Amino acid sequence: MSRVVYLDNNATTMVAPEVFEAMKPFLSGRYGNPSSFHSFGGGVRRDIDRAREQAAQLLNADPGEIVFTGCGTESDNAALLGALELAGPAKRHLVITRVEHEAVLQVGHYLKDKGYRVTELPVDRSGALDLDQLLDSIADDTAVVSVMWANNETGVLYPVRQIAEAVKSKGVFFHTDAVQAGGKIPVDLNEVPADFLSLSGHKFHASKGVGVLFVRRGIKLPPYVRGGHQENGMRAGTENVAGIVGLGVAAELALKTMTEDYRREGRLRDKLEKGILESCSNVYVNGENRLANTLNVSFEFIESEAILLMLNDLGICTSSGSACTSGNLEPSHVLRAMGIPNMLAYGSIRFSLSRYNTEEEIDYVLENLPPIIDRLREISPFAQRIS
Hints:
12 strands, Aspartate Aminotransferase, domain 2, three-stranded antiparallel beta sheet, Aspartate Aminotransferase, domain 1, seven-stranded mixed beta sheet
């Protein structure tokens, strides 16, 4: 593949050069264990502490509220299962939405099999949540409510501050999966009274294998991974020092460039969206009030797999939804929850940008995508049946 145009940044992002350089010493010369008594290992502890401060600054939180994990999925699991344990045996009800990431949905399915009550809230065609319905779903036995900050497939944003305030007014724990929001838009935990929040480093130009769980000060969340004393007893296991240091640098970079990145990505996304709508017929944008970097579109009468394969031959990397559901032949659970008809859901493509995408790359996609759509429609039995 001579050329790569990477537009799948909600799946993962390129490690920023500054992050890679910061990680390198801890993969070679500075390999000591931060729990060691000697200064060669123990000195590394200061670098972890610095990364904790950087992650806290990204969230406007206190460093003592930051727990480093292995990924966003671990953070989601630790928050939800820990909150249920904290709430006690009388609280056996979890409230989530139907458009959550699998890391939350599968916890719900697991708990339902164990006899817990799980409410999955619907969304409308735009992807929006009915806040009155959410509040009505909270009962005396509700332990925790979890609503994502931004959807990974459509980019739809949820009013997390308003939701958190309402949930907390009922004395219930609130968790938000902010994996797609962190490092892209301001996340201020002084303003949003969430008890728990999840982040994943590789979604904002850190490496894979490192995440963050924010735990509000004063909450004694039981450890999800038991063993040693690491992370103040909250998450056992020798720390991924290189990944943690890289996440800290990525958080610092995001704070510096977030405003300009968001503006620029939004301009490129809008150009891509406008170009697709003008050059392709029977195409629909999925979701409203979205992250600036995300465009999810459905092409009627053709399947996304065929589009992805032909784009891939040209070096254009996109997806049909979440990378964590790749290989599933069913249409996106997010689009189904939004009431998108199967004919459209099967033809959905997600483009997701980062600070490293260029206008030339958008032009390249707009030059090559319309002929692909035309070619596939010519051989589509669905399109021929309609015509």
